[in-house]
């Protein structure tokens, strides 16, 4: 795609992004909710998004699936007040809805598998009903304009006429950084175009590329993003990625599955201590008489 078409597509998505933003009043309400409240708190939401990241990695889903699932989840939570006990059903429903839009049908995990691996306490019928509720409330059809939409377009623009930049400006790395940011509800208040540009500038500064920095400035001027807004979110992105890169941070995509079983099930599970000892197989050649 040439520069003119990319910039035109960029503008079209920029004009549509406001339709796919969660209600800020709803997000603020979640952020102000304490953990002992009967409503969803920011910590509860962030933990559930990390679970979605783990499920995305386990089933081999794309970044697009994860980002769309988080977008659906945040828009629904900012619109409808739900109890914490229903959050698992809502979040997994959003993931399944996103996967049906972005993944090949042959790669889709059956609802029962999503529920089993996610160790959720609801049925496939519950999941189906919740999907219908979310789709109806959000008027969801098949897509949403997200930060990943802009990140992909920015990356294509940055690589125009210079494929060598692909080696130093990794889209995969940018996607991983975006996923880390989305695990914090505060970034759901950012305009997708601004969040994506903040991530791009952060990486460009890291690789110290002056020509790509000029491309980022051109994108900023084209979309009329103010310096104040870009600086604000760039600082927040830098802090988030600094925390994420620390050894103390538990990476959701590296998390091991932990199975919760009843005491009776645990007693019935075979461990190496319960395996009966078998006689040692002799290593010498068989005697013909033993045949």
Output the keywords.
Cyclin-G2; Cyclin; Cyclin_N; 2 domains; cyclin; mainly alpha; Cyclin A, domain 1; single chain; Cyclin-like_sf; globular; 291 residues
Structure commentary:
- Pfam families: Cyclin_N (PF00134).
- Essential for the control of the cell cycle at the G2/M (mitosis) transition.
- InterPro entries: Cyclin (IPR039361), Cyclin-like_dom (IPR013763), Cyclin-like_sf (IPR036915), Cyclin_N (IPR006671).
- This is Cyclin-G2.
- It is globular, with a radius of gyration of 24 Å.
- It is 59% helix and 0% strand.
- The protein has helices spanning 3-16, 24-32, 42-58, 63-77, 87-102, 111-117, 124-138, 147-158, 171-182, 192-207, 210-223, 227-244, 263-268.
- The chain has 13 helices and no strands.
- It folds into 2 domains: 3-138, Cyclin-like (Cyclin A, domain 1); 148-249.
- The N and C termini lie far apart (74 Å).
- It is an all-alpha fold and 291 residues long.
Which SSEs are present, and which pair or pack?
Layout: H1 3-16, H2 24-32, H3 42-58, H4 63-77, H5 87-102, H6 111-117, H7 124-138, H8 147-158, H9 171-182, H10 192-207, H11 210-223, H12 227-244, H13 263-268
Helix pairs in contact: 1-8, 3-4, 3-5, 4-5, 4-9, 5-7, 8-9, 8-10, 10-11, 10-12
- Count the DSSP helices: 13
Q: Quickly give the structural class.
A: mainly alpha
Largest sheet: none
Question: Would you identify the regions where 5 or more consecutive residues have pLDDT less than 50?
Answer: 269-274
Q: Tell me, what is the CATH class of the largest domain? A: Mainly Alpha
């Amino acid at each position: 795609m040439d520069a003119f078409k990319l910039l035109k597509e960029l503008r079209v998505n920029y004009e549509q992004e406001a339709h796919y933003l969660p209600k800020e009043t709803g997000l603020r309400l979640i952020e102000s909710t304490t953990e002992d409240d009967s409503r969803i708190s920011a910590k509860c939401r962030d933990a559930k998004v990390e679970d979605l990241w783990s499920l995305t990695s386990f089933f081999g889903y794309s970044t697009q699936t994860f980002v769309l699932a988080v977008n659906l989840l945040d828009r629904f939570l900012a619109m409808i007040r739900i109890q914490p006990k229903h959050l698992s059903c809502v979040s997994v429903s959003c993931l399944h809805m996103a996967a049906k839009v972005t993944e090949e049908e042959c790669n889709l995990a059956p609802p029962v598998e999503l529920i089993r691996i996610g160790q959720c306490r609801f049925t496939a019928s519950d999941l189906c009903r919740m999907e219908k509720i979310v789709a109806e409330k959000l008027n969801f059809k098949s897509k949403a304009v997200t930060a990943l939409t802009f990140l992909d377009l920015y990356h294509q623009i940055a690589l125009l006429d210079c494929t060598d930049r692909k080696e130093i400006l990794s889209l995969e790395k940018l996607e991983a950084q975006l996923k880390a940011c989305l695990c914090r509800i505060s970034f759901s208040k950012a305009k997708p175009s601004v969040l994506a540009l903040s991530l791009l500038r952060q990486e460009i500064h890291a690789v110290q590329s002056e020509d790509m920095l000029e491309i980022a400035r051109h994108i900023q001027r084209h979309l009329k993003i103010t310096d104040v807004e870009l600086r604000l979110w760039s600082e927040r992105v830098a802090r988030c990625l600094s925390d994420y890169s620390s050894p103390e941070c538990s990476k959701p995509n590296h998390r091991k599955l932990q199975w919760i079983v009843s005491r009776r099930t645990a007693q019935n599970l075979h461990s190496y201590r319960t395996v009966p000892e078998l006689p040692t197989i002799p290593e010498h050649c068989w005697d013909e008489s033993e045949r």
